[in-house]
Amino acid sequence: MATAQTTFNFDQMLSNAREAYGEELMRMADEGLDFVFTFTDNVAPSSSAGKFVKKYPDRCFNFGIAEANQVGASAGLALSGKIVFAQVFGPFLSLRATDQIHTDIAYNDVNVRLIGTHSGVTAGGGPTHNCIADLALYRAIPNLTVVVPADAGQCLKVVRQSMTFQGPMVIRIDRGGSPNVYASNDYPFEFGKAIETVPGTDVTIISAGSSVYWSMMGAKILQEKFNISAQVIDMHTIKPLDTAMVLKCARETGNVVTVEEHSINGGLGGAVAEFLLEAGFKGKFKRIGLPDKFSILGDPDEVYKFYGMDPEGIARQTAKLLS
Amino acid sequence: MSATALDLDLVQTLEAKCVDIRINLLNFIYRIGMGHLGGELSIVEMAVALYYHYLKFDPKNPKWEDRDRLILSKGHCSETLYTIFSDLGMYTMDYMVEHFETLETAKFGMHSNRKYVPAIELSAGSLGHGLPVAVGMALGARQQKLLWRTFVIVGDGELDEGTNWEAIMAAGHFQLGNLVAIVDKNNLQMTGTTAEVMNLDPLDKKLQAFGWDTIEVEGNNIASVCAGLDTLPVSDPVLRRKPIFIIANTKKGKGVSFMEDNVNWHGGGIAKAQLDQALAEVESTRKVR
Predict the structure, then answer these.
(1) Nearest chain A residue to B123, by CA
(2) ipTM of the complex
């Protein structure tokens, strides 16, 4: 089982995957790696991606407020022989450009890496700016690899490794700062191979993105308040799902909880549930995520708390499942 | 440019080729039992002019790096291209029939797939995708300073889809001098005339307002099509100038009296008696010189 040293303390420094990947693009370009970058009218000049655009203008293309055109044109750029990184505002990548992801990117099998920002409710501003249906949409599209880095450091690994990856990929990241899950970047990372971040014996919590960190904190509460030993899995690749890891963990602990910043319908929880039911899993199972409702309005941290996606909520719901 | 300034031998050769392609296309659709003959017949002259003369294209090496790229955005008319590929020696007609939507052995389908047919640049079928992808291709050629040109053929009904207008706006903005779009303006879409369903006119003025140059041709007159294509400036990936839209005024179902301008000939197969009449009519247009 892949393991990595995790940070795991409550005074966690935040780091920002959106900034980190822009810095990685700059490093890769500085090293002479060949790729182009497309974006819509969403790259601030002061951001790391903005600085990249300023330094390498001949390989950057701004499509204005037109996600469908950006994604289609990114496919065209890839067909002209380039690897393409495309930064798209996540809610509109999934809701406006799924047609283009399906047909231009996945069906045409091009080397475009779609970086969907502002995942879940991290954008703030209510349901028009929530990105909660994307994983369900992406999961149903063949030939699409879907990656949700757990933290900024892992996002760097994903971006770097995607340079040698064949085929289309979506990389889903938060709007701003999120806690570091991993203490250092010195751990093996492979697409489709999940990572155990916290060992445990009573229940397995499978998560992705910044929810991995909330799950790890939830596992700590479970241990301290409920005497429950929870294992936490970083399922950074939603598709293809590491089913071997899911099965192994489910057999070992007998109980499975999923946590994700996405609708509870059709995302990571759906993927795990579908697999486990067909595999004959008979244990207890719970999906934690955003309910099948348009979200209440509020600061993301308050929204997490309201829907039980914060560490306390994860611990409370997991303990209830096991009681 | 008047037709008299054209290479008359070329015009006559292409004219005869259009008759061949229409006949082969009708036979092909009869054998596979499905197609979109109306739109497939209306693009014959443009497709023939491009593949037999104006495109940098090598049937023996369809992935030749320096080739011009032609995207058929109205992907439901792919049988016209397959028929041309067959005539160019890439596949026999029998092979195409035996591999048409035949499950595991399928290579050809109503909507073309670039993974199965190497000469197809973009797997298409859903409308409104070709122009955005063509913009990306042209930008890619510019970024790499490659000399090939990107062509994209769209339907007029297809221009209802808003993504086209995002791409048309972007191509004007980027001033892509290496991009040529061609609209098969047959004035019919699936259920009626474009004027009835969703008015497109004045198309030339709309395109010009979006930063394009337009060239209007009689799209089923090979001399006019050639005259239009002859006026294209040399493709230049770097030079910023207006992209070019060729408005090809065509007739849906061109060449077969009972299909021409008949909205009922959008999609489907063709019966034997209809085939025989259609073949006779097309053959009668062959000019004996």
Answers:
(1) A108
(2) 0.96
